[in-house]
Amino acid sequence: xxxxxxxxxxxxxxxxxxxxxxxxxxxxxxxxxxxxxxxxxxxxxxxxxxxxxxxxxxxxxxxxxxxxxxxxxxxxxxxxxxxxxxxxxxxxxxxxxxxxxxxxxxxxxxxxxxxxxxxxxxxxxxxxxxxxxxxxxxxxxxxxxxxxxxxxxxxxxxxxxxxxxxxxxxxxxxxxxxxxxxxxxxxxxxxxxxxxxxxxxxxxxxxxxxxxxxxxxxxxxxxxxxxxxxxxxxxxxxxxxxxxxxxxxxxxxxxxxxxxxxxxxxxxxxxxxxxxxxxxxxxxxxxxxxxxxxxxxxxxxxxxxxxx
Length: 308
Prior knowledge:
Layout: H1 14-22, H2 32-44, H3 52-66, E1 73-77, E2 91-96, H4 102-111, E3 127-132, E4 148-153, H5 163-166, E5 171-179, H6 185-191, E6 196-203, E7 208-209, H7 227-231, E8 250-257
Parallel strand pairs: 1-2, 1-4, 2-3, 4-5
Antiparallel strand pairs: 5-8, 6-7, 6-8
Helix pairs in contact: 1-2, 2-4
């Protein structure tokens, strides 16, 4: 008698999920919007309108509005296909170096406006740009002094450093940083007292909390350490961090760029392979800048002199 062995279906890891997400369904050519929606759903197990971080970004936008802080332009390094911030910010520049999915990512961002029909600022032109490059590279519109209103760092890292440090000079004085601590990036931002000021965090319920007295307390002693001690957590997994901090249940922390902040980090001068997305052929080509994505509004302010 043959024995039947039932194999349990193992949960695929994040790398396999990413590979699965790059597989293009046969319906891609006929319905790019539906293809993009399906790709987003496979990556995040929900639609854009149902993503748990949407409430967090809306809470951040509401708080910024009450503080008279404009959030018109955002930079999202290491974004992959996460277009959720574009639901609340009308102009977003996405940067990702995932080599195995560059052509598919470019096509995704062409179709991405179809996923954002219910965005909060629907009366304003939508501007989406995508760069197939590492966020530490010098991309035409991504330059020191470009003055983004919001820098987003969510679970992205690079051997060259954390986003909060590498991209700090790309945020205008008074602009904001939304950062989680998956790779120690929030700790790095907290250590950069000359550049960033902690102003709050968005909790697990999507509520902006302005009381930061319990943030970044060391587990030993329940007090804050010297700023330089937090920088040692950069790129370290939680179990191997030199400084363990109390978990306050933040989806992400919110820092503000200090008005008199000095130059923090110089981006490399070597050019990067950006990508320009054209509406007809949807081809990638080496470029000094990423062109406007069709269907996403007029050229952004960043196309002007001195913009990123």
